[in-house]
Amino acid sequence: MRATFQTRLWLWIASFIICAPAPAAPAPGQNPPDAPKIGLVLSGGGARGGAHIGVLRVLEREGIPIDCIAGTSFGALVGGLYALGYTTSDLEEILTATDWLQLFSDVPERRITPLFERRDWRYQGQISFDGTTPQLPAGLLVGQRLTELLNSLSLERMAAVDYDFDRLPIPFRAVATDLATGKPYVFKGGRMTEALRASIAIPMAFTPVEKEGMLLVDGGLVNNLPTDVARDMGADIVIAVDVTSPLRKKEEIRTFFDVIDQSISLQIRESVERNLGLADAVLRPDLAGLTFIDYGRFPEIIERGAREAEAQLAAIRALVGARRSKARSDSTVSLTAAEVSSVRFEGLRKVPASRLRNEVRTRPGEPLNPELLQEDLRRLYATRLFEHVDSEIRTDRGGRYQVSYYVKESPLSTLGGAIRYDPDYQFVALAEYTARQLFHSPSALSLSAQFGGATDISAGLRYIPSSLPILFVEPKVHYRRRERLDIRNQELEDRFDEKRAGGQIVVGGSLFQRTEFELGYRFDKASISGGTPPNRQAEPRALAGFTFSLSRDTLDEADFPERGVRGRLQIDERRPSLGSDFGYSKWQGTYDQFVPLPGPGTLQLRLDLGYSDGDIPFYDQFYLGGYSMSQGAARQLLGYRLDELVARQVGLGSIGYRHRLLTNPLSFVRRAYLTGLYNFAAWSQEKARPYQFRHAQGFGLAFSLDTLVGPMHFAGAWGESGRFNFYLTLGPSF
Length: 734
Description:
By secondary structure, the chain is of the alpha+beta class.
């Protein structure tokens, strides 16, 4: 009886097991309840961090699931964008399409910067003043261009998850360093732009990010491989990708900067080694020969990352088991169509909000346009009133959008300086002081001084009424001195000094930030020292009359533009009835156009015209010759010497092709160019019609460098009658 009961019991258990339903398998892309959580950790390393994309591409292709991401510096940049929902193809396109030279620049977008504010492109250095106290910058770059890029990539996606990093498609953390305490700070929410900008803020290169009383810089200083952060996020399995730059060898440590770099690298390496033990798998792509500034070699860097992931794939599969994730699809995020309820400016201290209303196009009561919002950021920064501008979108209880612009005001007084050398004028230095936002209006005071081989001192007050900011009134006084050469038959006959002291008052207007006109009265007292007849003037003479100018500038940059036009027309009417010792008319106009060509080439065209009628003195005629970058020098004519030709009427045309040889954003030489140029001139010395025109032509080759201290030009050119001249300019044009 007992045996029978046991037999029946075992048969009943067996039948239950056989008939019981099998547990349901998880659907593809769903985690089993007890599945281990997989964390991905991405280290910093500058441009070498592009290898993270190669690793992600392989993991994405193989369906290796990623449940959370922690990143530092460039690893935070790649990880943050991937966590937002971008695919590896998206990331590769972003990195390769980005103009890194522009990104590592604090110069506002030129096309929307007022013409008056475009002068500081020529400064090699600038000091700001808080009252009378000078303020040195906390870093070379504020990173506004980077902020604008990150904002365009993240704003809508972050607003959709209410700025919660745990609600992203993949939960994410970014690591920064509090410069005051030396402790790590982990971003768990807030503006993604702020988190990534702080995490990649390399000390001395970028200014720190101010947040809640902290000064945040690159997280790599204290935690370059944040495996501990991934563990804190609940990761059971941690896959770490380490692209930290290797330490320098002894023979590579030569300069003061090498010592600083090695000291920082030692600290970074120590934090990496400390956290390696928390990783279950460590991928170290072979990045030999690639440095943290090789932003032009992203395709190669990405491929090396992919090769490392392929080599480690078997070990990764063994770690994660059979779990696989669904392939990523198009992750475009769009906010719901709703109107803006409010627009606020956060951080204003001295600049009134009313001053900014005309600068933004996002307005309450209108539908939210994210593209317009990004344009607003660029436009606000282009006012030059702010060091940094960011934005945020929040949804109110009624489902409408609250738009906030976060600004950090620039000191309203600045002193900029530059120095230039060329054989014609030797060393010339520039110092320029600007005080903005005077009289509680957009008005500005400017004091400028050039001294050395040429002198140009001026002081002007541009008064702009707040009620009509497109118009201005500007009184100005000036003193100028320049040496002119008297060249006859290719021989230097003599030299004379031209000195002018005077002033002007003009009424003008600015149209669409690109066009400006002025109309007013100008008076100069001209004195000449030295010279050989007819180039002599014994007594100071007055030049007085009406002046009119019209300027338009749409160039994308000042020194090496690739697109856009720049034109200027100036008309001076000197009349004895207006206080002048001479009566004459002088018209002059220039037009430059730059056209991008396929590849790294640019076509450049120039037309320069001048016409005078009447008793124009010899020193106010049109001087031609040379390849000087000084704004007051003779018109450029290749193959000829400075001031070699003098004309009363002139027409000059030029065509050139400029080829970009290299681009390296963070090095001393950022770009190098080779340019071929041809120009042609027709000029006349006749006082009245009919004009008898003579002709000249020249061609040359120029090698130019765009460096951290300004442009450098080296050129050789051939002119008629066996002329050959070599030209050199070191420093910006002013």
